Structure formats: structure tokens, C-alpha cells
Amino acid sequence: MKYRVNSTIKVFKNVMLTATLACLSMSCVSNAKSEKTTTEKPNFIIILTDDQGYADVGFNGSDDIITPNIDRIANEGTKFSNGYVTYAVCGPSRAGILTGRYQGRFGFGRNPIIDPTDENSGMPLEEQMISEVLKPVGYTSSIIGKWHMGTHEKFRPNKRGFDHFYGFLSGGHKYFPSDLTIDKIENAKKDWSWYNTKIMENNKRVEIDEYLTDELSHEAINFIEREQDNPFFLYLAYNAPHTPLQASKEYLDRNTHIKDKKRRTYAAMVTAVDDGVGRILAKLDEFGIDDNTMIFFLSDNGGAKNKGSDNGELRGFKGGYFEGGVHVPFAVRWPGKVPAGVNYQNPVSSLDILGTFAGITKAPIAQERPLDGVNLMPFITGKEKGVPHDVLFWRAFDQGTLATRRGNSKAIQSDRDGNHLFDLANDLAEQNNLITESSVKENNVQYQQLTEEIKAWETELIDPIFKPLQGRHVDSRKRKKNKDTNK
Ligand code: CA
User: Residue 387 C-alpha to ligand 1 middle, in angstroms?
Assistant: First the structure.
């Protein structure tokens, strides 16, 4: 067992005590490096990894994958031991992160089709992404890495509030420059050949000469250097350690302690990310903007089955709604502002990232598209009593799954995976289904109440607005029992 959840009361006391101590100490700290800063407009960085398992970071107990730099974000900031994403695969999870809204509200309930002629398959233009929310309050934004929010011209990053884009449009990519041979996505006619497209810098294709993860880290540093005097938002969406499992010799050589070849390669891919995070943290310090930069780190979904990842004791994998699919490594760091060394255990959501940015900057949010996420700052600093979310919801349209967590109770109602009720306080591993033929009446009543609550929430959602990636020529409504696409 790599970690455990304590009783709610004990946790709450610990969080409050630690948060209070951190706040007290912060008021005594001089802010020597912050001449360039204003507290209202800190720089924001989201470092998003792809398919990284809950237990694949040191701060969640990994003892084979060594992540000292990623761990700094958690150890010098606040770690969320119950941090969730809103979908168990890449595209919809990212749609939630970038809008602060449940993706089902705007029909992004599956991975988008990679087809630049498809005018439906992407983030609806009326939705406001973080970059679009922050632009009116003076931010310059960059997306570096994986986009996955639509490939049609109208959906591309530079049309969505991002001033700078360096990366690729599709849901995955190869890592070695010699594999990147296709000049543009229009020429990637075969499924998955888009993994071989050349990297884009804004609307141009560029040649790269480094292992892709290193390339993305360097570009992130270049962007930070250019924008160090202005408020910026950097969305650094590494595709590592998503398949294909490809690592350079340098990183493989640092993971020879791992005997399993697949795990070693996966670990090496995480090492590359960790090195990048370390270089970024060093540069923020060198530029004197470390104290004025808030960094969120998380994975877009849990580790995938049989791909070298480790979700620890959490049940299940990417694509499913047991904890292993959506309960992810998650932390935030902002020196002097976010309490350091705190393990915050109340459930938080990736939807809260935009809620937090908007709360700090007072950036306006369109009334007709209210956020589902909240500003986490009052909660993690202890100013706000109570919890950020009484309830969290999930819907995976194609597999007929609905799920919710209210307090420590979690209900799953799934055509694919069956019906479940778990008490996460005592059974985080979801081994003891509380609704069975012999289960007690109270559990059945509770399950009933939770599923009614999910169904009430579901009435606010719409069906996916684009067809699925696999079997996209089939009417989506006939596919309800099919598995979610796993790319
Ligand atoms: Ca993913």
C-alpha cells in the first residue's frame, strides 16, 4: 500500500493546522525576488502529463521512478491526494481542464476525430478556454505539446486565445525526430499516421533535432524567457509517457535499476519530463519570477493497462471509472502563496484549475457558461471552511458509464463495468462492492440516491457533437455499449 486516506476529521485538522502554520510563516517571509511581480497577475503554468499513473511520481510513493523535480511542486506546494480529472481518456479530460466545465455540457464526450476537414470535431467555439479567459486581463498564452482539441483550422490553438503554439494537433506522437516525416496533418491519411507529422510552431512546420520531450521543455523555457516581464499562461502538455513507449539512451541509462523493459522505458520517459520540470523551475528562479508563478502539475488520466504504468492500490486503468482511471497525481506550487508541504485530502477536480486562475485574476467568466470548478486558494490556505466540492460526477457516453463521488461514497453505474458502491474512506482500492444481492438496505438506498443525483446532473449534458474516432462511420447512438477509445 503506497498511501492511505485517514479519517476525515483527522485529515481536516491536519490540513487546517499545516495551512495555518504555512500562512503565518508566509507573512514573515520577505519577497526579495518579486520586484517584477504583482500578486493579482501571477504567471500560470500547467504541466500536464499523459497517461501517468497515480503512483508514478515520487510524491505519491514511487520507489522506482525517480522524480525529484516534479516532487518539488508537491513538496514546496500543496499535494492533492484526492485529485481527479473529469474523464478517463485524453481529449475530454483536457476539454474539462481547459474550460473548467464538464465536457458533457458542450458535447466533448469522447476523443475527437483527427481530420482537418471535420468542422464538428473539436472544442466548440463558444466555449472559453483558459487562454481566452485570461487574454482580456492581460495574459500572453502558449500551448506547448499536445493539443487534441480539434484539427480543423478553426479549432487550432492560435484561433483559441493562444498567442503561441509549439507541438502537434493529434492525441499522441512519436518521440524521435527521424520518425517525424509527414509535412502536414492533411497528408496523414492512415489512422495513427498523424503520430508521424512534423512539429508545428504556430502555423508552420519545423524540424526538430532533439528527443521530443526535451524539445518541448526547451521551448517552454524559451517562452518563459521571452515573456518573463509580462503575465503569461503556459500550458505545457507533454505527451509523455503516453505510447508509443520510446525513450532515448540517456534516460534509459538512468533507469537500469528497473528490470522490466516496458516499465524501464516508461520510467525513462517520465525521467525526461522530470528533467524538463527541473530546468523550468531553475529558470523561473534565475529570471526572478519563481515567487510570482503558480504551477499546477497533473496527469490527464490514470495509467493505461499493460503500458508500464502503476496506479498503486487504485483499481482499474485509463478508460474506466474505478479510481485508477481518474484519480491522478496532482499538485500545485506558488511560493509564499500556496501552503508548502501540505497534503490536502478533500477531493479536488481538474476543473478547479481555471476556477483558481479566474479567482486570482478576477478574469470575467461568461454568465451563460458558468464554471463547474472553484477557486482552490481559499480552501488550501484555510480561509474557507468546508470542501471545494460536495460531489463530483463522471459520464462516459460510449460505454454507458455514470459515476459520482459524494464525500467518501462512490457510485458507479456502468453498462460496461457493472454497478458499484464503495466507501473510499475504508476501501480506496474499491474491492468491496456494497451493493450486491445480499447487501444491506441502507446501501441500496444510498446507491439509489447517488444514481438519482447523477441522472439529475446528466440532464444538463448533451450527447457528443462529433462521431467517435474508431467506428466513426457508425451512428454513435448504436455504440453505447462499445468500449471507449483508448487513444
Ligand atoms: Ca491521456
Answer: 27
Res 320 pLDDT > 50: yes
The model carries a pTM of 0.90
> In this predicted model, what pLDDT tens digit does every residue of 32-55 receive, in sequence order?
444 444 458 999 999 999 999 999
CATH architecture of 392-478: 2-Layer Sandwich (3.30)
Active site residue 90: yes
Close Cβ partners of 427 (under 8 Å, ≥ 6 residues apart):
none
Determine the distance separating the centroid of ligand 1 and the alpha carbon of 338, expressed in angstroms: 27
- The alpha carbon of 241 and the centre of ligand 1 are apart by a number of angstroms equal to 9
| The one catalytic residue among 28, 90, 173, 218 | 90
CA separation for the pair 482, 127 (Å, rounded): 28
Point out which residues pair with 410 in neighbouring strands.
Answer: 405, 422
Q: From start to end of 301-347, where are the E strands?
A: 330-333, 342-344
State mean pLDDT over 3-25. 41
Q: Which CATH number fits domain 41-389: 3.30.930.10, 2.60.40.1120, 3.40.50.150, 3.40.720.10?
A: 3.40.720.10
Q: Which residue has the higher pLDDT, 470 or 342?
A: 342
Is 327 known to be catalytic?
no
Q: How far is the centre of ligand 1, averaged over its atoms, from the C-alpha of 182 (Å)?
A: 23
* Confidence at residue 471, expressed as pLDDT on a 0 to 100 scale: 56
Residue 82, pLDDT above cutoff 50: yes
Of 254, 257, 214, nearest in space to 238 by CA: 214
**Residue 472's pLDDT is what?**
54
Rounded to an integer, what distance in angstroms lies between the CA atom of residue 38 and that of residue 165?
A: 26
